[in-house]
Design brief:
Blueprint: E1 2-7, E2 13-18, H1 19-30, E3 32-37, H2 44-57, E4 60-63, H3 67-79, E5 83-88, H4 90-105, E6 110-118, E7 124-128, H5 133-138, E8 147-149, H6 154-171, E9 174-180, H7 181-185, E10 187-192, E11 195-200, H8 248-263, H9 266-269, E12 272-275, E13 284-288, H10 292-305, E14 310-315, E15 317-319, H11 323-330, E16 335-340, H12 346-353, E17 357-362, H13 371-381
Parallel strand pairs: 3-4, 3-5, 5-6, 6-9, 8-9, 13-14, 13-16, 16-17
Antiparallel strand pairs: 1-11, 2-10, 6-7, 8-15, 12-14
C-alpha cells in the first residue's frame, strides 16, 4: 500500500508536551495500536500516557511481567498485523536484546523507544546519559542492521516517532528512538498539523514473506489470520519460513539481504542537519546528537558571534551512520569535536570516516553537558 496521508488523531494546533507525551502522541498518530511494556525510569511516562490514550483510539495496552515478555509480545503483535512498540531504559533494553535480534531475523517491524539514563547496570535511574548508542547497533548477536534516530527537541520526539514507525514498516526492521532522561522530561511546544504521513505494510498474497527478487530487498509481509500459511522462526529459514539451519547458501542469502535492505538505502534513511557549514574552509566543526547538540549549537552560535569560523553537524540518524556527511565536512574543517554523555561512542565512528583530527569530550556524571564546557573546549581548538 505504501505511503498515504491520514487525518491526525489530535486536532491541528500547538500543544505543550513533555518528550514522553510527544512520543506517545506520535506513536498514536503513526497508527500504533499495540504497546507491550514494563515500567522503568525514566521511560514510564510514555507507558502511562499510552495506557490512557489507547482507550480513545481502540489500541491494546499490555503491562507485561518483564522486559523479555514485553519485547516478545510486541513482535507477536506485529506479526498479527498491528503497528507495535515498547519503551524502556538501559537495564530494560539489555533484557530485550535477544528479542530484538529475533525481530531483526524474522523481519518484524517494531519500534523501541530507549530513554537513556546514566549507567551501566542500574546506574542512576533518574539522571541522564547517552551510553546505549552502540548497544542498539551491536547488542544482539549475529549480523543485522537497524535504524536509530536521535531527537533533540520535543517536536522531534513527536516527528521522529512517526518516522520510526514508517521506517519500521517500510524496511521490516526494528527501529529505535534514542531519547534520554533530559528529552523525556523536557516540556516544549509541539506543532501538530491536521494530516499525518503514514506507511502501510506491503502485502502480496502468495508471495514468500522472507525473500524477494525486488531491488529493495524487502519482501511483502502478511499477518496471521489473513489466510497465508505462515512459518516464523528464529532459525535460518528459506523464503517461506522453512527451517534451513544446515544450508550455507540459504543462510548467506538471508543474512546478506538483511544487511543490504538497509545499507543499500542508507542515503535515503540518513538525516543530518548542518549549521554554519556553508564556507569552503572552517576552523572546525562540532558533531552533535541528541540533547547534547542543543548545548553544542549554543556554543557554536556564541563563537560565530566572535568571528570564529566554526560549524556544527547534527546527526538525526545514528544508524545507519552518516559516513559520507562526516567525510565531506572533515575535508573542509580543520578539526571535528564530538561531545558525548558517554565515554566516547560516536567519536569512534567519526574518526573512522574523518579526514581531519577528531577530538572528544566525554561527560558521565549524570548531568547534561553545559554549553560553556563545549565552548571552552572549542576555543582551545580554534
Amino acid at each position: 500500500m505504501g505511503i498515504s496521508i491520514v487525518p491526525s488523531p489530535l486536532p491541528a494546533g500547538t500543544y505543550f508536551f513533555s518528550g514522553s507525551d510527544a512520543v506517545a502522541e506520535g506513536a498514536i498518530a503513526a497508527g500504533c495500536r499495540y504497546y507491550g511494556g514494563y515500567p522503568i525510569t525514566p521511560s514510564s511516562e510514555i507507558m502511562e500516557r499510552i495506557a490512557r490514550r489507547f482507550d480513545d483510539v481502540g489500541g491494546v495496552f499490555m503491562q507485561m511481567e518483564d522486559e523479555l515478555a514485553s519485547i516478545c509480545s510486541v513482535i507477536g503483535a506485529s506479526w498479527a498485523g498491528a503497528k507495535a512498540m515498547t519503551a524502556t531504559a538501559g537495564p530494560g533494553l539489555s533484557l530485550m536484546m535477544e528479542g530484538i535480534g529475533y525481530a531483526a531475523f524474522t523481519e518484524a517491524p517494531i519500534v523501541v523507544v530507549d530513554i537513556q539514563r546514566a549507567g551501566p547496570c542500574t546506574g542512576q535511574a533518574t539522571h541522564v546519559g547517552s551510553g546505549d548508542i552502540m548497544q542498539v547497533k551491536w547488542g544482539s548477536h549475529g549480523d543485522y542492521q537497524v535504524i536509530a534516530y536521535s531527537p533533540w527537541s520535543v517536536q522531534e520526539m513527536y516527528d521522529l516517532t512517526i518516522k520510526a514507525f514508517n521506517m519500521a514498516e517500510r524496511y521490516r526492521v526494528p527501529v529505535f528512538l534514542m531519547g534520554s532522561e533530559a528529552m523525556a522530561h523536557l516540556r516544549e511546544q509541539v506543532v501538530i498539523s491536521g494530516k499525518v504521513e503514514v506507511f502501510h505494510r506491503e502485502k502480496k498474497p502468495g508471495a514468500p514473506p522472507f525473500d524477494t527478487g525486488e531491488p529493495d530487498g524487502v519482501p511483502p509481509m502478511p499477518a496471521f489470520g489473513e489466510g497465508e500459511n505462515l512459518l516464523v522462526t528464529g532459525s535460518t529459514h528459506d523464503g517461506y519460513g522453512f527451517r534451513k539451519s544446515d544450508d550455507p547458501g540459504v543462510h548467506e542469502r538471508l543474512v546478506s539481504r538483511l544487511h543490504r535492505k538497509i545499507m543499500d538505502h542508507r542515503r535515503e534513511i540518513q538525516e543530518v542537519e548542518m549549521f554554519h557549514c556553508d564556507e569552503d574552509n572552517l576552523d572546525g566543526a562540532v558533531v552533535g546528537y541528541g540533547f547534547t547538540a542543543r548545548s553544542a549549537l549554543f556554543a557554536v552560535n556564541h563563537l560565530r558571534a566572535e568571528g570564529k569560523r566554526v560549524g556544527m553537524v547534527r546527526l538525526k540518524t545514528l544508524w545507519p551512520f552518516p559516513d559520507d556527511v562526516i567525510h565531506e565536512i572533515s575535508e573542509r574543517a580543520g578539526w571535528l569535536f564530538v561531545p558525548e554523555m558517554n565515554r566516547g561512542q560516536v567519536v569512534h565512528q567519526v574518526r573512522e570516516y574523518a579526514a581531519c583530527e577528531v577530538f572528544s569530550l566525554n561527560q558521565t556524571d549524570g548531568r547534561t553537558i553545559h554549553p560553556g564546557i563545549i565552548e571552552e573546549n572549542m576555543r582551545r581548538l580554534s
